[in-house]
Amino acid sequence: MRTLQDRLNSLREAFQKSAPEAARAIMKQRGDELRDSGIMDGIPKVGDPLVPFALSDTDGTSVRSDELLAHGPLVVSVYRGVW
Question: Is residue 19 predicted with pLDDT exceeding 80?
Answer without folding.
Answer: yes
